[in-house]
Design goal:
CATH architecture of the largest domain: Distorted Sandwich
Order of helices and strands: EEHEEEEEEEEHHEEH
Number of domains: 2
Strand content: 25-35%
Number of strands: 12
CATH topology of the largest domain: Glucose Permease (Domain IIA)
CATH superfamily of the largest domain: Glucose Permease (Domain IIA)
Shape: globular
Largest sheet: 10 strands, antiparallel
Radius of gyration: 25 Å
Mean pLDDT: 75
């Protein structure tokens, strides 16, 4: 939605804890938060047609655009996007008129039921001003180029760290994997070391299988 130099970040993600019912993303300035995003122009993510330009007590000033993009998983229905809580709407944005990708839609604000300046941006496939939860889709999936920054990278790093921690806690993450030596047999008196046979499961796999 913004120029990459503005360094936006997502303050509340799509259907993520602690807001599983949040069917969009909230965008603020990466370092200055709400204060840094107030009045910043929001831009169209795709070519399309302006469906609604309206005021809502909950959404504030909003612009709804039916884009030229489609969702293959939903019978190629066209994707509609919504920009909520705008401070103002660009004069060139007129209902039922075409809009170009990158064109200014309005200025980010704090109107409606909002507790700090941000842009609520969501996407759906039913084209309504108030779409159903079932029609909602993740806008980051279809318009990734407009979510510039480190949000995805940070999340990937968190997932990797969490995965490593989980593997370590389950005991299936040996510090050094010795492919050429396995513990073949063990009893009270002897430990025999030998080269593992082809396709024989390793020690970690054996231990995990035994534990499971």
């Amino acid at each position: 939605m913004y120029d990459p130099s503005l360094h936006q970040r997502i303050s509340s993600g799509y259907k993520r804890y602690p807001r599983p019912g949040h069917n969009g993303v909230d965008i603020v300035h990466r370092t200055q938060g709400s204060a840094g995003i107030q009045g910043v122009p929001a831009k169209a993510v795709d070519n399309g047609t302006v469906s609604f330009v309206s005021w809502s007590n909950s959404a504030g000033w909003m612009v709804i655009i039916q884009t030229n993009s489609t969702d293959p998983s939903r019978n190629n229905r066209r994707i509609t996007v919504r920009y909520l809580h705008l401070e103002s709407i660009d004069p060139a944005i007129i209902q039922h008129q075409p809009v170009a990708k990158g064109q200014a839609v309005g200025k980010t604000g704090n109107t409606g039921e909002s507790f700090g300046a941000h842009l609520h941006f969501d996407a759906n496939t039913d084209g309504a001003a108030s779409p159903t939860a079932e029609a909602a889709i993740n806008p980051q999936k279809f318009f990734p180029a407009f979510f510039v920054g480190r949000t995805y990278m940070k999340m990937r790093m968190i997932y990797v760290i969490a995965l490593i921690a989980l593997i370590a806690l389950t005991g299936c993450f040996p510090k050094v994997r010795q492919e050429h030596i396995e513990v073949a047999t063990m009893d009270a008196s002897t430990v025999e070391l030998r080269r593992p046979e082809k396709n024989q499961p390793g020690l970690c796999e054996q231990v995990c299988t035994a534990r499971g």
